[in-house]
Amino acid sequence: MPAAKNQSLFEEPPHTLVKALKYALDNPALTQADLRFAFRTSPELILSAHRPLICARTTKAFRARYMPALENIDQEHDYENPLIITLDPDHVQPDLFRDILHYWYTGVFERATNVLATTFGVEATGRDGIGVKDGPQHANIIDPSSADASARLAEDMFNLWKEGTYSDVELTLPPLSRPSSQVEQPLLPPGPYHAHRFLLSSHSSYFSAMLSVSLAESTTLALHSDIFPPVTLTSFLHFAYTGHLPPIPETSTLKQRLNHFELLHLAGDFLGMGDSLCVHTAYHLAALAHNLTTCRCDQCQQVLPPLLIIAHRHLRTGTSSLLDACGRVLSDPVGMHLTWPHRPIAELSPPALRDTIASCTITRIVPANAIDSLQSIHALSMALEAHAAESWSHTITTTMLKPILTHTTGLIVAGFPTITSSSPTFLACVDGMGLSLDFLDFLLVHVVKQLGDATVGKVYQAVVRDLLGRGSVADNFAEEVGGDEGRQGFGRDRRGNRADVSGW
Ligand SMILES: [Zn+2]
């Protein structure tokens, strides 16, 4: 489990294994329970269960002593005629057994006092007497929220997956037509992918539907290879059996990790696991960023677009805070040059996300930050120009940069005297802080383009009075007029621009 570096944005989601197993216990018909525990009481009490889970959670000695029929591995599965095990009330009272059953499924005792008094299974295990491997410690019973109990449950279920005991479905993948770029998962067992119907059905509405209609048919279920590359499928299975995602090899690249989580999220969406697998995937993806709101490093910039996509895909599953956080960072008007000039931004899906980012950015550009925003736009335009031959650069330029440039410049033109005279950034440029003259050029060119009858007078007055009046300006513009061929960036446009400026 990676450290939750973005905890303030996205709390670690709860483990969903217990929830799924509780669902299986409470819905025996929907999860094909193949086992009945019967008490010859009056009326007769029947409790449904799933044979793989009981075997995963109890010791062999315990089963041999109290449920010898369970050890008959050769018995055919027949959900219509489940295996019936009659329990002796002298060994365990029905109410107590119900509590024990609950513990086997969830790792939690609902009524701890009952269990403390039982001698059920003491002979066989020599421990606390309910047959659970290693036996629950009394402290766990009294404190049902104990992490040990849930870890034990996950470990038992992981072993069930590895050993495949009573596995009753095989998931198959048609061969991929293209080479997989997935990360390797050496810790996970290779295919074929054996699993248990009750667990898949408890986690996923897709599996619940697919496995219920094919009960009497083949125990093989073919999955789509494009949705479930092998690594994605094994990661899903690991999650289904343990409640958490498997670790990713340290050697995998950031790109491989992003790709892995994106595919896993799509698979979770396909399986109807929006509030479990999808949320966990989003959490792990977010944890790849150092800090979404403050860190502007390359890694965090790469994490943002896929995180925004999956946060948007699952608005309904409680990731709205994540979407808000991503959107807030991406629509920061003074950070556009950092977060936008990347191919994934042009390829955001749905494309409307780009429009949302652009419009949110516009709403955040106000007179007080207009100059700084324009400076970010200037840097963004240079970054995009470096990739001018690539279509993604063109997409960002036309759909995001241009409308924001128009809006920001319009804002500056409308409030030119106030905005320029109160902007430290602008005044630093005017005072000739080296490369900032490129930005000043950029600003003036676009201001001139938007000048109208109502604004030209004010702008001209401000330029003459406030801008040219500053001591440092005369020198700088004298240098400009003198020409300098060596300047980078927008120097090519400068001559034409200069004519405009001198015409004010
Ligand atoms: Zn970072």
UniProtKB/TrEMBL annotation:
<protein>
    <recommendedName>
        <fullName>BTB domain-containing protein</fullName>
    </recommendedName>
</protein>
<feature type="region of interest" description="Disordered">
    <location>
        <begin position="484"/>
        <end position="504"/>
    </location>
</feature>
<feature type="domain" description="BTB">
    <location>
        <begin position="33"/>
        <end position="113"/>
    </location>
</feature>
<feature type="domain" description="BTB">
    <location>
        <begin position="167"/>
        <end position="249"/>
    </location>
</feature>
<dbReference type="Pfam" id="PF00651">
    <property type="entry name" value="BTB"/>
</dbReference>
<dbReference type="InterPro" id="IPR011333">
    <property type="entry name" value="SKP1/BTB/POZ_sf"/>
</dbReference>
<dbReference type="InterPro" id="IPR000210">
    <property type="entry name" value="BTB/POZ_dom"/>
</dbReference>
<feature type="compositionally biased region" description="Basic and acidic residues">
    <location>
        <begin position="484"/>
        <end position="498"/>
    </location>
</feature>
